Amino acid sequence: MINLQGVSLQVGGRDLLNNASCRIFPGHKVGVIGANGCGKSTLFRLLLKQQDSDAGTIEVPAGWEVAHMAQEVSATNQTALDYALDGDHRLRDLQHALEAAEADGSDGKRIAELHERMAAIDGYSGPARAAQLLDGLGFSHADQERPVKSFSGGWRIRLNLARALMCPADLLLLDEPTNHLDLDATLWLEQWLQRFPGTLLIISHDRDFLDAVVDGIVSFEQQELVLYSGNYTAFERARAERLAQQQVQYEKQQAQRAHMEDFVRRFRAKATKAKQAQSRLKALDRMAEIAPAHVDSPFRFRLPCADKVSNPLIDLREAEIGYPGKTILPSVEMGIQPGRRIGLLGPNGAGKSSLIKTLAGELPLLSGVRQCGEHLKIGYFAQHQLEALDAKASPLLHIQRLSPDASEQQLRDFLGGYGFLGDRVFEPVGGFSGGEKARVALALLAWQKPNLLLLDEPTNHLDLEMRHALTLALAEFPGAMLLVSHDRHLLANTTDEFILVADGRAEPYDGDLEDYKQWLLSFKRDEKRRQESDSGASETTDKPVEDKKAQRRAAAARREQLKPLTNKLKSVEQKMGKAEKVLATLETQLADEDLYSGGQQDEIARLTKAQGEARETLDALEMEWLEISEQLEQARSE
Question: Which CATH superfamily is domain 314-515 in?
Answer without folding.
Answer: P-loop containing nucleotide triphosphate hydrolases (3.40.50.300)
